[in-house]
Amino acid sequence: MKFLLDFLFRVLQLFTEPYFLVFLAVVIIALLKRKNKCKNLRTGIFISAVVMIILIGNGFLGKLISGYLQKSYISSSGMKNTPAQNPIIVVLGGGVVDIDNIEKLHTMSYSRIVTAYQLYHEYRENNQSCKILISGKGRGHTSEAELFRENFKKMGVPDSDMIKEDQSMNTYQNAKYSSQIVNQMGPSSVYLVTSGFHMKRSVALFQTFGLKPIPKASDFIDTEITIFPNSYNAAFTFVMLKEVVGIWQVQLYNSLGMNK
């Protein structure tokens, strides 16, 4: 059952890829034209494709999705009024890039580092203990967790205050493996640091594994309403569309008890 649903969601995620949608529209129109049938259907598909390109490219659809994904976490991104019971800051990896065989963190990772450090520093200034749990293996030779650790160390965070979870390859595993570590550390106030567009799905998965994280969004993305479609709007809209599909998957699997 789970294998079949995994496959179906993989297929559904294809519809959040711009090239696939264009390819699909072209293939359908070409097949219908070859049979010399369904002229009205061909016209309808063409018009639908044009309308979709406009809605995605002019930022309208992205603006709606951006609010759905991120609005709840804008006010929670501040650092005030933080609880003090054994705080653990869980930071999710944002990807690794490899340029000339040199591995560096993806751009969005640095906003997560800054946000986590600000929260950590707030506790340390008040002489309170605080741990940073870095979650992410990535697909490079060096894990995301290790690259994060190196950056935190340069900012003055001692190794004794950092915990590496360097086995997870996706958000589901981030939540699963991090929750196992947190549960071994006893009652704690758990903060979750990741990008705003990624927060809703991340929180849902951490809750699935028994944690109630306090969200601390590190960055936000949005589109701009424009008269003419542009690639900036399209790129961010498709990123957010894929995230929405991921949220649907989490919700369905949770309702079926398949996310453990």
UniProtKB/TrEMBL annotation:
InterPro entries associated with the record: Cell_Envelope_Assoc, DUF218, Rossmann-like_a/b/a_fold
Give the source's domain of life in one word. Answer: Bacteria
Keywords for the protein's UniProt record, in alphabetical order: Membrane, Transmembrane, Transmembrane helix
Q: Which residues form the DUF218 domain?
A: 88-246
Q: Where does the sequence pass through the membrane?
A: 12-32, 44-69
Q: Which Gene3D superfamilies match?
A: HUPs (3.40.50.620)
Has the keyword Transmembrane been applied to this entry?
yes
Answer yes or no on keyword ATP-binding. Answer: no
Name of protein: YdcF family protein
Protein source organism: Chryseobacterium rhizosphaerae
State the taxonomy lineage. Bacteria, Pseudomonadati, Bacteroidota, Flavobacteriia, Flavobacteriales
